[in-house]
């Protein structure tokens, strides 16, 4: 049975940014086809992989052009969950997933409109059904096992998908909310450190890439009002030589940096494309298991991180593997 | 002794921090204005001392021919200790203010408008009130921008059920939802969509059953 | 702070449950959603004013194909939270996973008792999944739920004891913890990380490689 072609095509319907006229319409694709991969665009560089439940690898091809990105909804959500968990566990602020967030936000908006349309249709049909019920009404309902089920049944199950879609959208919103709130707290914590990054041109990755546009603005504005508060209540009463907020000369460095060596729990997942053979940083150990070899500089100790295993490790040691998506924080 | 006052302030901050670690809701004690003013006075005094010590040192250096190595070392040492005292006072003041700042941030996010109102009149310094107002505006702007659909200040507990039963704890008037109008009278119960009443639960009008 | 302190150290139990709820599970639907007419014709008509489109599931975090093609009493796989929602509405029964039977759990308990230095290969979500299903789908088990519950509790206790014994091996280098579940990790996280970070600081201090991590009382107040 082929589920995934459906999915990719359904995605085409939804993603307003990605419609290729030359693609065959739904009806021309045999729904029982066994094709496991479907190349939508030729200039693909990034490939998202997903295991379906039969263990078969399903390839969703992704275009590199920003405007023509097609990533299946379940893969996007999976990536979002990973980003959220990584961000919550990492001692530093991780780069903002610009593309992923753009996709998620536009999906949410579309879905909200869709839900609204459906529920408006319902309201027209049975407005009285969902108006408020007094405690008396409630008692009447309580005699049934489950008030929701009662109403569902009375409505010929037609509200079930709606209920489900509403639940889903709340879930997505929660993850994004928690993710952003976590990022904001890190932006606050490392406010001065991030400013330092901004001024330092030698960085490989610029602040614009680490932060989203909204985050950049938040960072700047929050810094300014905090500085104003500290100036007005403390700093302006200090002798001139002690008025700096980012004093690195004194006996204690006042700029807080992420604790690069903090211990984190990691799950070694392997290369994101699932191709173990092509990952040149992978080696096989004496038990013939695939692993990444890392070194803890301070202890001059080598450690093998085997795929699918769980470790507690210093963040700095696995930072590159994390950014390459080869380990996840858990 | 120099630094004693700052130490008192920092102990106070530590106590506040521990208190807040145990309780979920941030409680901000009164701003220690007197203590802070006295610490600032101390810094001014210390500054005068350093200026004086510097003068002495220069005078000593200008006296030719005298073997005053010992005196010079004593002066240097005094000067250095005084500087450290000043620096420490500054750190303590900043740490105290920073902790309160963080707590004000939490408060601004927690949405409890009523508790913010209470605080503004009593326990905050003038500057802190100003800060709280500005940070509140920042959050409002952030919420209405790109992430308007997300409700950034919404619940950080994962949604478990979309529809929930709630009991009304205090009269809240009528609310309009997609599913009709609800008249929230004390002690009545409703079956509503959680996201519609999130705010009312946070504000203590409704309770999830 | 924009993220409460208790969420900065580790995930809340509710968040762990949330993570687990996104995993697939097998169900027996009690309803049929597959439509005779080609349902895809309606996919393009998302405006919602048309009756048939309302019956369609259109999801943004998971495949909606299985949901739009449910056939009563034919096994299908859906995301756990959807399964629980359907269950709540009496629209399906949930098929308990193979490891969640008395026989299988007894084997796991045996293994745990036999091997003092390792954990049995339970799925990464075993504890949370068991608790969720006991609470929300108790009538879907073939075995008596209270006995299953006892065994899960036994397993949990045996494993907790092992973890406690293992704590003396905490060091400043690293630790391998295979087969520990997401909830177990989450509970241990603050403790293990705190201790290992302290050991690391001690080690650094003793070897004089870095004195940057001086821990005194003011450290928490460092202005940042």
Automatic annotation (TrEMBL), chain A:
Keywords: DNA replication, Nucleus
Localisation: Nucleus
Ranges of biased composition (kind: Polar residues): 31-53
One BP term from GO: double-strand break repair via break-induced replication
GO cellular component, one term: nuclear replication fork
Primary localization class, coarse: nucleus
Biased composition (Basic and acidic residues): 18-29
Domain DNA replication complex GINS protein SLD5 C-terminal: 258-330
CDD domains: GINS_A_Sld5, GINS_B_Sld5
InterPro entries: GINS_A, GINS_bundle-like_dom_sf, GINS_Sld5, SLD5_C, Sld5_GINS_A
Region feature (Disordered): 18-53
Top-level taxon of the source organism: Eukaryota
Residue span, GINS subunit domain: 136-232
Family: Belongs to the GINS4/SLD5 family.
Full protein name: DNA replication complex GINS protein SLD5
Source species: Naumovozyma dairenensis (strain ATCC 10597 / BCRC 20456 / CBS 421 / NBRC 0211 / NRRL Y-12639)
Gene name, Swiss-Prot/TrEMBL: NDAI0A07080
Automatic annotation (TrEMBL), chain B:
Coiled-coil segments: 36-73
GO cellular component, one term: GINS complex
Domain (DNA replication complex GINS protein PSF1 C-terminal) ranges: 161-208
UniProt main location, coarse: nucleus
This protein's UniProt keywords: Coiled coil, DNA replication, Nucleus
A Pfam family annotated for this UniProt entry: PSF1_C
GO biological process: DNA strand elongation involved in mitotic DNA replication; double-strand break repair via break-induced replication; mitotic DNA replication initiation
SUPFAM superfamilies: GINS helical bundle-like
Domain GINS subunit: 57-144
Compartments it resides in: Nucleus
Keyword Coiled coil: yes
InterPro entries listed in its UniProt record: GINS_A, GINS_bundle-like_dom_sf, GINS_Psf1, PSF1_C
Family under the similarity heading: Belongs to the GINS1/PSF1 family.
Function: Required for correct functioning of the GINS complex, a complex that plays an essential role in the initiation of DNA replication, and progression of DNA replication forks. GINS complex seems to bind preferentially to single-stranded DNA.
Subunit details: Component of the GINS complex.
Protein name per the record: DNA replication complex GINS protein PSF1
Protein species of origin: Naumovozyma dairenensis (strain ATCC 10597 / BCRC 20456 / CBS 421 / NBRC 0211 / NRRL Y-12639)
Gene name, Swiss-Prot/TrEMBL: NDAI0A05950
TrEMBL record, chain C:
Record-linked Pfam families: PSF2_N (PF25005), Sld5 (PF05916)
Subunit structure: Component of the GINS complex.
GO terms classed as biological process: double-strand break repair via break-induced replication; nuclear DNA replication
Broad class of where this protein is predominantly found: nucleus
Entry-linked PANTHER family: DNA REPLICATION COMPLEX GINS PROTEIN PSF2
UniProt record similarity statement: Belongs to the GINS2/PSF2 family.
Record-linked CDD domains: GINS_A_psf2 (cd11712), GINS_B_Psf2 (cd21694)
InterPro entries: GINS_A, GINS_bundle-like_dom_sf, GINS_Psf2, PSF2_N
Keywords linked to the UniProt accession: DNA replication, Nucleus
Cell location: Nucleus
Transmembrane segments: none
Entry-linked Gene3D superfamilies: 1.20.58.1020, 3.40.5.50
Domain GINS subunit: 99-202
Region (Disordered): 34-55
Stored SUPFAM superfamilies: GINS helical bundle-like, PriA/YqbF domain
Keyword Cell inner membrane (UniProt): no
GO (cellular component) term, any one: chromatin
UniProt domain DNA replication complex GINS protein PSF2 N-terminal: residue ranges: 68-95
Species annotation: Naumovozyma dairenensis (strain ATCC 10597 / BCRC 20456 / CBS 421 / NBRC 0211 / NRRL Y-12639) (Saccharomyces dairenensis)
Protein name stated in the entry: DNA replication complex GINS protein PSF2
Basic and acidic residues composition bias: residue spans: 38-54
